[in-house]
């Protein structure tokens, strides 16, 4: 019975490394999937929303004097501040025809405050700070009434953005690394399974069986 016991001892010598390899590859796969999902919602989805906006030249048409007070949409914090909703209309040309559009500063404002038609949002702790930020934004618009913008003629129903932040390169770079890590983790797990067949997780059963056989053999010898 010495030969099976020695074989089990040699197997246990490499079991720690193989188990660590399994755990590392599984952790890498899980982290890659979670990172890919987060990047998808933070980068890819806004890029797809911005994709329908084309570059144009906007002229300030109207700033509504009435600014209703809205609550900031912040899901990461329980503290909710308030800000005045400034509504702005612009005019742009398409095929030598003038069209009016509702202005938003970024795609984030467009997604969260499209219903209220707020041009921007400021979510500081105090209402006075948010009001001051909105007044500064209004003053800049009045100072520069003609500016480059991005309009959505048919996709979003005559709406305009002041800025576009997401580019195809950012989407490519953001998704490449998680996809590469996920691919490497899957290949490593397949290679481990091909050579090991998950036998490392059954060594304890084999050890217990070997010890039982050894005790039985010793008792019979006595």
UniProtKB/TrEMBL annotation:
<feature type="transmembrane region" description="Helical">
    <location>
        <begin position="21"/>
        <end position="44"/>
    </location>
</feature>
<keyword id="KW-0407">Ion channel</keyword>
<keyword id="KW-0406">Ion transport</keyword>
<dbReference type="Pfam" id="PF03185">
    <property type="entry name" value="CaKB"/>
</dbReference>
<dbReference type="InterPro" id="IPR003930">
    <property type="entry name" value="K_chnl_Ca-activ_BK_bsu"/>
</dbReference>
<keyword id="KW-0325">Glycoprotein</keyword>
<protein>
    <submittedName>
        <fullName>Calcium activated potassium channel subunit</fullName>
    </submittedName>
</protein>
<keyword id="KW-0472">Membrane</keyword>
<keyword id="KW-0812">Transmembrane</keyword>
<keyword id="KW-1133">Transmembrane helix</keyword>
<dbReference type="GO" id="GO:0008076">
    <property type="term" value="C:voltage-gated potassium channel complex"/>
</dbReference>
<keyword id="KW-0813">Transport</keyword>
<dbReference type="GO" id="GO:0005513">
    <property type="term" value="P:detection of calcium ion"/>
</dbReference>
<feature type="transmembrane region" description="Helical">
    <location>
        <begin position="171"/>
        <end position="193"/>
    </location>
</feature>
<dbReference type="GO" id="GO:0015459">
    <property type="term" value="F:potassium channel regulator activity"/>
</dbReference>
<dbReference type="GO" id="GO:0015269">
    <property type="term" value="F:calcium-activated potassium channel activity"/>
</dbReference>
């Amino acid at each position: 019975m010495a030969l099976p016991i020695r074989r089990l001892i040699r197997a246990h010598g490499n079991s720690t490394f193989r188990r660590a390899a399994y755990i590392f590859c599984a952790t890498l796969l899980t982290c890659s999937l979670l990172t890919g999902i987060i990047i998808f919602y933070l980068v890819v989805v806004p890029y797809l929303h911005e994709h329908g906006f084309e570059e144009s030249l906007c002229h300030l048409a109207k700033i509504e004097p009435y600014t209703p007070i809205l609550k900031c949409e912040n899901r990461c914090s329980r503290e909710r501040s308030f800000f005045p909703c400034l509504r702005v209309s612009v005019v742009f040309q398409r095929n030598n025809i003038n069209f009016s559009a509702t202005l938003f500063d970024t795609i984030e404002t467009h997604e969260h405050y499209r219903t209220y038609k707020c041009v921007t949002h400021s979510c500081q702790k105090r209402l006075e700070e948010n009001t001051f930020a909105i007044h500064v934004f209004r003053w800049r618009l009045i100072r520069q009434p003609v500016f480059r913008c991005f309009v959505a003629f048919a996709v979003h129903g005559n709406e305009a953005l002041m800025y576009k932040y997401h580019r195809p390169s950012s989407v490519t770079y953001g998704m490449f690394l998680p996809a590469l890590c996920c691919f490497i983790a899957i290949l490593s797990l397949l290679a481990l399974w091909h050579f090991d067949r998950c036998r490392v997780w059954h060594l304890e059963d084999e050890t217990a069986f070997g010890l039982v056989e050894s005790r039985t053999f010793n008792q019979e010898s006595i």
